[in-house]
Amino acid sequence: MTRIYAFVNQKGGVGKTTTAINLGSYLATNNQQVLLVDLDAQGNATACLGVERKNINAGTYNLLINPSTRLHANTMRSEKLGISLIPSSPALAGAEVELVNEPDRANRLKQALSQASRYDYVLIDCPPSLGLLTLNGLVAAQAVVVPVQCEYLALEGLGQLLETINRIQVAFNFDLQIRGVLMTMYDSRLKLSQQVVDEVRLHFPDKVFQVVIPRNVRLAEAPSHGQPISKYAPDSAGANAYAALATEILSGDTPHNIILS
Ligand code: ATP
Ligand code: MG
């Protein structure tokens, strides 16, 4: 079965894109068919995989605006990385406005992903807002991964995110679950980092992934080389952490235990 996870936090710069890309590449290493959906007009996921954005005339924008288009026609495949990508083009910035009068505007991505059954994992990289694009991600997803940076005020905004998830469960997607909260950019030299992890675990018992992603300069460097960490620095602490996250997710997603949350 296809598992569709949205990477969501309306706070910017917490590691949504870094997680979607690097988790995706390690899931692929584990023989999973992975489709990454760049649902952010910033196009960071697309750029991080080395795709030149100005040359894109298909992708997420086309899928949302033009419901008759085929998923396959908007998908790029990287044989080198073993993953597929629905890229974001600059036009995506206008999609929220263009869709505003469409009655099915929240369901466009879900409809498009009904053609994604050949994939084991569809990972949706959402923008840092709770607008229509993220709404499409949440309506299409089975579960949400929430990256949270290990810093002061980490929990700020999470209440609002949970409220949004509740509203979406009621209005659109009864089965939407929280797959897990992922602590990112952990700095072992800072007492604060551990305090934040403890606090988040207290607020979300059983929801926080065991794996904690360290702050690691290799993770920040990899995008400028157009590579996931599994190619750029496979022996780094960041690579080990994302490889372990893939293992944790795969072991939770057993056929008998469809979505652990
Ligand atoms: P946005 O909300 O803008 O989409 P985001 O939540 O997707 O941001 P990222 O783009 O993944 O966050 O990360 C923000 C910045 O932090 C990037 O420059 C990224 O390379 C860097 N970064 C992410 N995770 C780590 C990490 N564990 N260690 C060091 N740098 C990191
Ligand atoms: Mg991002």
Put the structure in a nutshell.
With 261 residues, the chain is α/β, with parallel strands linked by helices. Helices cover 37% and strands 14% of the residues. Strand 6, helix 7 (158-171) and strand 7 form a beta-alpha-beta unit.
Proportion of residues in extended strands: 5-15%
- Structural category is alpha/beta
Q: Biggest sheet: strands, sense, closure?
A: 7 strands, mixed
Q: Mean of residue pLDDT?
A: 93
Low-confidence stretches: 257-261
Q: What order do the strands of the largest sheet run in, or round the barrel if closed?
A: 3-4-2-5-1-6-7
Describe the protein's architecture and organization.
46% of the residues are buried. It contains 11 helices and 7 strands. It is globular and about 50 Å long. Helix 7 links the parallel strand 6 (143-149) and strand 7 (177-184). It has 261 residues and is α/β, with parallel strands linked by helices. Helices cover 37% and strands 14% of the residues. Helix 1 (16-29) packs across helix 11. A 7-stranded mixed beta sheet has the order 3-4-2-5-1-6-7, sandwiched between helices. It binds adenosine-5'-triphosphate and magnesium ion.
Essential attributes:
261 residues, alpha/beta, 7-stranded mixed sheet, globular, binds adenosine-5'-triphosphate, binds magnesium ion
